[in-house]
From TrEMBL:
Regions crossing the membrane: 7-29, 41-61, 73-94, 109-129, 149-167
Record-annotated Cation efflux protein cytoplasmic domain positions: 223-284
Protein known as: Cation diffusion facilitator family transporter
Lineage of origin: Bacteria, Pseudomonadati, Bacteroidota, Sphingobacteriia, Sphingobacteriales
Keyword Membrane: yes
Native species: Pseudopedobacter beijingensis
């Protein structure tokens, strides 16, 4: 958690510095496109500030009111950042529209391009580092902040190309065209970020994570685990909460069932993620015999005729695998 706070503090400090550089470039050039980039830097600073708070809040231990912990706040952080990005994009487009009808002269383009280039390089390097570390720590807040900085870096480099074109062609309307393009690009990225955060808040299923989880589960699968169904995953900060039903031979005693559940827990936690597992043990029924892998089952009613692979199509259903899928 300490490393997360350090990364966000670095992002916040760099964001403030780059914001000042970009506004300096705007006052030098009077370019709407540069103002677009500078306005987004304000969002960077606000978002990093809230990201720091959300990481602190997510680190608080579970309590009576938050039995799953406080990790969901990271989705609120990403949602706020996405909304701020969209608002920045709308303001940028509005300002650019005004200047189409009331244009202002543009000057000192090369100096402005140089300053924007420096900010783009810094944001690009910081974005790469934050996304890499955020994925390692399974932190949506750091990944979202890093991707936002990546968007900022891409728009900065596009802006440099535009400023050079204006300098070479002396066509000032290119400034407005670039500003419009960056404004819509910023809004689109804000939408993507809010979409991810809303999905997390509503416990939308992470299909890729479930597929990866099942790869581990199938790798460590044992004959005693007749089937797994009603699998559900929720994400709280860096921790996944997984609950499912597992069918076990009905003649297992409580000690044996507990041991099997513990082994299932180890299997599901064999990946590069943190998971808290809740398993409901179901007794097998005669209808399970046709896909049961138990080699010497004392109560088998019919021979095994099929070997069912666990995949997202059957483990997420709330039923045993009676349909022989």
């Amino acid at each position: 958690m300490k490393k997360k706070k350090q990364i966000v503090l670095v992002s916040l400090s760099v964001g403030v510095l780059l914001m000042l550089v970009k506004f300096t470039a705007f006052f030098l050039t009077n370019s709407n496109a540069i103002l677009t980039d500078a306005a987004e830097s304000i969002v960077n600073v606000i978002a990093s500030s809230f990201a720091f708070f959300s990481i602190y809040f997510a680190s608080l231990p579970k309590d009576q009111n938050h039995p799953y912990g406080h990790g969901k706040v990271e989705f609120f952080s990403a949602f706020l950042e996405g909304v701020l990005i969209i608002i920045a994009g709308i303001i940028i487009i509005s300002k650019t529209t005004y200047n189409v009808f009331y244009p202002e002269p543009i000057k000192e383009l090369l100096q402005g391009a140089f300053l924007i280039g420096i900010t783009g390089i810094v944001n690009g390097v910081l974005s790469w580092y934050m996304v890499k570390e955020g994925k390692k720590m399974n932190s949506l807040t750091i990944v979202a902040d890093g991707k936002h900085l990546g968007t900022d870096a891409v728009s900065s480099f596009g802006l440099i190309i535009g400023l050079v074109l204006i300098y070479l062609t002396n066509l000032s309307w290119i400034d407005s065209l670039i500003s419009f393009a960056l404004g819509f690009y910023i809004i689109y990225n804000g939408y993507k970020l809010t979409r991810i955060s809303i999905g997390g808040l509503m416990d939308e299923s992470d299909i890729e994570f479930v597929k990866n989880l099942l790869k581990h589960f199938n790798t460590y699968r044992r004959d005693e685990w007749i089937d797994v169904h009603n699998l559900r995953v929720q994400k709280y900060g860096e921790t996944y909460h997984i609950d499912c039903h597992v069918t076990l031979p009905y003649y297992f005693d409580l000690v044996k069932v507990h041991q099997e559940v513990s082994d299932i827990d180890k299997a599901m936690n064999s990946g590069d993620y943190k998971a808290e597992l809740f398993v409901h043990a179901d007794p097998c029924l005669p209808e399970c015999c046709h896909y049961c892998n138990m080699k010497e089952c004392p109560v088998r009613k019919e021979p095994q005729t099929i070997n069912i692979e666990w995949h997202i199509g059957n483990v997420t259903k709330n039923q045993k695998h009676f349909d022989k899928d």
